[in-house]
Amino acid sequence: MPRLKYASVVRVFVIIGLFCLWVQIMLSASSGGIYRDGEELMNANETSEQVLALVPPELHKYLTVHHKNVSANSTERSGPKNISDILRAIQRNNDAQTIYNEDIFGPVQNDTIIIAIQVHTRLTYLRHLIVSLAQARDIDKTMLIFSHDYYDEEINNLVRSIDFTKVMQIFYPYSIQTHPHEFPGTDLNDCPRDAKFDQAVKLQCNNALHPDLHGHYREAKYTQTKHHWWWKANRIFNQLQCTIGHTGPVVFLEEDHYVAEDFIHMLYLLRNMADKSCPQCEILSLGTYLKTYQYHHNSDKVEITPWHSSMHNMGFAFNRTVWNNIMELQDQFCAYDDYNWDYSLLHLSQNRPGREKFKVILCKGPRVFHIGECGIHHKKSNCNASTVISKVQQLLKNAKPYMYPSRVTAIVTTGGAKHNKKLTKGNGGWGDIRDQDLCTNMTKIGRQQRTYIYYA
Ligand SMILES: *[C@@H]1O[C@H](CO)[C@@H](O)[C@H](O)[C@H]1NC(C)=O
Ligand SMILES: *[C@@H]1O[C@H](CO)[C@@H](O)[C@H](O)[C@H]1NC(C)=O
Ligand SMILES: *[C@@H]1O[C@H](CO)[C@@H](O)[C@H](O)[C@H]1NC(C)=O
Ligand SMILES: *[C@@H]1O[C@H](CO)[C@@H](O)[C@H](O)[C@H]1NC(C)=O
Ligand SMILES: *[C@@H]1O[C@H](CO)[C@@H](O)[C@H](O)[C@H]1NC(C)=O
Ligand SMILES: *[C@@H]1O[C@H](CO)[C@@H](O)[C@H](O)[C@H]1NC(C)=O
Ligand SMILES: *[C@@H]1O[C@H](CO)[C@@H](O)[C@H](O)[C@H]1NC(C)=O
Ligand SMILES: *[C@@H]1O[C@H](CO)[C@@H](O)[C@H](O)[C@H]1NC(C)=O
Q1: HSE of 4, CA atoms in CB hemisphere, 13 A
Q2: Is residue 31 a part of any domain in this protein?
Q3: CATH number reported for the structural domain that contains residue 159 in this entry
Q4: Reported pTM
Q5: Which residues make up the binding site for substrate (predicted)?
Q6: 18 pLDDT band (50/70/90 cuts)?
């Protein structure tokens, strides 16, 4: 009999284990990881009735897809058409540093929470992120900065239609979209990814002497996300006119994230807890992958632990003090042979002379979710965004009674052995010296005056 009991206990553990794994995969971010899609704009009208039912009617406008007028000449779309037009529009926008709705919500203060959102082409998800942000308490006291690596009028129109807080758009100027046949895109003379070293040297292709640590040559699409992340952070902390005296937190989100309505409230609680009990906690993290469904236990629990790239990269925040520290060690980020920005940051964290690794203080009940993956059994092609969004909506609806805790309690952990392991080598994809140079060059651009443009 004991043997039987043992077997059933094991079975229960295996089932719980598998369930946890499933939950993690369902909600796991791969921000630094896989390149998701091509340059196709994802803008489907697949929001289900079920999802719509839980969105307040006044926010439906952010989900409405305006189908292109088929009868009109499709080449006659308003806005830039060719690359030189797009480059010019990008420069004009970046120079202007326009803050939309500043007249309604007041200027950026030194302690304004800045929410930086990295946007590629997944407009369907972005619509839902905006809907979630619109419902967050105190969102009107923040500034949203949308950072784009793909210029598109539909995306721009959506972002500029936001009316619930201050909004700025910044445009990554070295994108593949605007450099399709030259670095940072793919140059005609670039070495093929799988070329052998001798073969590449004989071909005399670009940087034949610099494959990555796996012996592969650069692939533009894999490097763009890290470049964009780095450019965005530099742009926000070092270049914008409105952040000269800024000392508040900058929260990092991506287009396929979804926030809980009390995420700003939680950010304040995390900051207060850090000030009181963990002054060395540099990073605040609103998302986590653990115990996702146990809000009644975890909504007021926070954890203090060493920061780890793949676990604490979703909805995390830091301020200028921390940024300055990162800047001092920028070489650890730019010269590290890893195309993931988060692993590059982990490498930097592990190599701070005379300092500990970054510490993070995080919400045990997550306030940021990842809606951009559809789980293991779905191919991207038949992946239904509504299904995942509906799950998160339902989860947050059920968690409502546990939101806005008046205080939080912290536990301190050391993190697992696996996560404390010192990185010995990167994941590769960042061997080309042009990528390392571009990354370094981005840190050399100084504060830029705002130029005012007058439309005729
Ligand atoms: C997605 O799933 C919802 C129900 O979960 C369904 O109503 C909707 O039609 C589906 N959309 C697509 C494009 O499959
Ligand atoms: C697209 O969404 C709009 C607004 O929600 C709706 O009126 C329209 O019927 C939808 N079209 C399709 C093809 O689902
Ligand atoms: C579509 O375009 C045609 C020609 O420009 C115009 O007459 C028509 O009103 C447009 N329809 C809609 C729904 O915008
Ligand atoms: C669309 O516009 C282009 C260039 O302006 C023109 O050559 C073409 O004939 C137009 N097509 C239609 C269907 O109007
Ligand atoms: C791009 O389009 C504009 C008109 O929109 C035109 O004046 C310009 O010559 C075009 N540039 C190139 C390189 O095709
Ligand atoms: C913001 O910070 C700057 C630089 O530290 C300082 O000069 C300015 O007075 C501050 N503004 C406010 C409103 O505190
Ligand atoms: C910025 O973060 C550092 C490190 O976590 C912290 O010590 C400092 O108090 C923060 N500054 C502000 C103005 O919150
Ligand atoms: C970086 O800047 C240097 C000096 O301005 C320049 O020569 C080099 O081409 C730049 N590299 C890249 C990849 O932009």
Answers
A1: 1
A2: no
A3: 3.90.550.10
A4: 0.85
A5: 118-122, 149, 224-228
A6: low
Q: Which of 110, 114, 242, 447 to mutate to test the pocket of ligand 6 (most atoms within 8 A of CB)?
A: 110
- 300: tokens are 């007021």
User: What distance in angstroms lies between residue 76's CA and the mean position of ligand 3's atoms?
Assistant: 12
- Cβ atoms of 196 and 185 closer than 8 Å: no
Ligand of minimum distance to the alpha carbon of 248: 7
Query: What is the identity of the amino acid at 285?
Result: S
CA angle 260, 265, 266 (to 5 degrees): 75
Residue 130's domain spans which residues?
Answer: 39-441
Q: What is the pLDDT of residues 206-256, one digit of tens each?
A: 999 999 999 999 999 999 999 999 999 999 999 999 999 999 999 999 999
Residue 101 confidence (pLDDT) above 50: yes
Q: Classify residue 17: in a domain, yes or no.
A: no
Q: Name the DSSP letter for residue 43.
A: -
DSSP state of 63: G
* Residue among 407, 417, 408, 420 nearest 359 (CA): 420
